[in-house]
What we know:
Distance between the termini: 24 Å
Structural class: mainly beta
CATH architecture of the largest domain: Alpha-Beta Horseshoe
CATH class of the largest domain: Alpha Beta
Largest sheet: 5 strands, parallel
Shape: globular
Number of strands: 9
Radius of gyration: 20 Å
Helix content: under 10%
CATH topology of the largest domain: Leucine-rich repeat, LRR (right-handed beta-alpha superhelix)
Low-confidence stretches: 4-8
Order of helices and strands: HEEEEEEHEEHE
Amino acid sequence: xxxxxxxxxxxxxxxxxxxxxxxxxxxxxxxxxxxxxxxxxxxxxxxxxxxxxxxxxxxxxxxxxxxxxxxxxxxxxxxxxxxxxxxxxxxxxxxxxxxxxxxxxxxxxxxxxxxxxxxxxxxxxxxxxxxxxxxxxxxxxxxxxxxxxxxxxxxxxxxxxxxxxxxxxxxxxxxxxxx
Length: 179
């Protein structure tokens, strides 16, 4: 399925790499992924270097107490964003969508092109409306979480392109009227 998402040779479109894989990173909250390195697969990631302003002050004190100016390049932090239509956050301990949008924007060059999101095997009980910002999402894996309310799943009706949704292994899969 992911192969069909890749531009064909000769297209002038943006090039996309394989799924960015943050599975098995022992993450407990979404922001943990911004500090983690994705797992390396067979295919190389397509990355875009970005320079972020550093949190460090632009000057520092010398041993004599005088302020010393630090070169502008030293106040920048090197960072990369990934060009991909798919991302895996599976097999972690995520229990909340807090920071979801911020994390995606920090990791991906473009969240608008995201088509495949794997949040399986986490501890999610609710589905955030922040996921509705991913209007091109086609595949969403939420299996093996702890979602227990169909109203949470009903939110996903706002994703116009969603074709594949997995929910097995959640508390709701035993509820009356689940299917």
